[in-house]
Amino acid sequence: TRIHVLRSTGSPVTNAPALMAGQLTRSGELRDIVDSFQPGIVHAVGYGSGVFVQQQQPAHVPAGLGLPSHVDNTTEHISAPDELPMIDLILTVSDCNAFHEHMLARYPSHYSALARLCGPSFCATLQRSERCGAGVYFNPLVDSPLIAGGEKNRCKGRKIKYGVVQTEDLVDDLTNWRWLYLAGRMQKPTVNVDGLEECNRIALAQAQNLDMALAASLLLLGGRTNSAQTVDLTSLFEQIAGLSYAGDPRMDVGGEDPDKVSKLVRSNGQEGRFYDLYRQSMANLQQMGLMEVVRRDDNVRAIAIDLDDDATRRHLWKSLPSTVNRGTCYGVGVESRHASAQHLCKCLVNIVRPAARRQSLKGIVTAGIVKSVQYASAKFAKGALRA
Asked: What span, in angstroms and rounded, lies between the C-alpha atoms of 182 and 201?
């Protein structure tokens, strides 16, 4: 197949204030929520179906026409905020004990009865304990703190779920894939909340996380395809989106939408956001001569890379974190692209499964029985109970 090389400048993509295709929530609107919380938040991102539409576009429908009926192509028109999905937020704090102390005093209804009884030290310990999940404390199904009326904000009247993580723990997950939990969420498009305290450590760690996600996905795709020469970008982005679901017990028991990964990539505007997110990581590999972004004769963008080349696979493996590379000396499981992919898949499952299982169990304590049942029911309605 004839291919045409596309040169990437690697220039950064700036956040526009207007809503882009398939976007439901602006950075400024998320900032209003964050500002109503404890002031020690140093970094925040919004993600999930409350921020970006997660509805696959049928092949015969032009972009934008597969949105919910009350949202137009630019999502500017919304009939009722409570019709929109719950907003997901990750809040990074410098002191989780101080954060929980402030929030328990100001928003006690966000916490379970047990958390209110035991206090902020209990919450902080539960959040960061190695035996209790992935270093994050979630409060789901919380009413938006924004009061209705006044200036238009799509976050008013909506439910939110926010996860609290200590800066050190987020950086650890982003750079070492200690749990591949929040790191996995940040391997997908998010909306950065602008105007918060600068945290260069997180920005650098996130860049490394994206580089590693691209390398791992290329290795995994090498084991799935008959040809090691080209990989179309849609398949690449779906592989990236699925990294953090490898071994996740929620996928095994129907606690997640089986089409989740596909919707994360194929929904309105998402492929463009994935491309922007990984533009620099792809440019880095292209500058090293390991791959090229090309356009095939059928006008599909793809990556040209020789995964049968030992040196290429060696470089990709060396860019992965120690949690994956531990015990791997480019020997067992890495001799061919197929063996390399199988070995990597096992490594990812061994990281994701225990962390996801513990985090799910912790959610019962942090959210309480009632909210846990409500939240799980909504998840199973999209998964095992879907008609």
From this structure: 15
Integer Cα distance of 318 and 293 in angstroms: 22
For the chain, the C-alpha Rg in angstroms (whole number) is 21
Which residue, 90, 133, 82, is CA-closest to 249?
133
What is the pTM for the complete model shown? Answer: 0.84
Distance from CA of residue 121 to its chain's centroid? 28
Other CB atoms within a 10 A radius of the CB of residue 100 amount to 26
Q: Quick check: 254 and 383 in contact, CB under 8 A?
A: yes
Contact of 148 with 156, CB cutoff 8 Å:
yes
Q: Render pLDDT for 272-283 as a digit per residue (tens, 0 to 9).
A: 999 999 999 999
pLDDT digit string (tens) for 19-44? 677 777 888 888 989 998 977 899 99
Count of Cβ atoms closer than 10 Å to residue 39 Cβ: 11
Answer whether 304's CB lies under 8 Å from 291's CB: yes
The per-residue DSSP string of 268-294 comes to TTHHHHHHHHHHHHHHHHHHTTSEEEE
Residues near 252 by beta carbon (within 8 Å), at least 6 away in sequence:
none
Asked if residue 383 lies in contact with residue 258, where contact means CB atoms within 8 angstroms, the answer is: yes
The residues with which 89 forms a beta bridge, in sequence order, are 46, 162
Q: What are phi and psi of 182, to 5 degrees?
A: -70, -35
* Both tokens assigned to 57: 């576009």
Q: DSSP string spanning 278-344?
A: HHHHHHHHHHTTSEEEEEETTS-EEEEE-TT-HHHHHHHHHTS-HHHHTT-SS-TT-SSHHHHHHHH
In terms of Cα–Cα distance, which of 184, 190, 152, 179 is closest to 75? Answer: 152
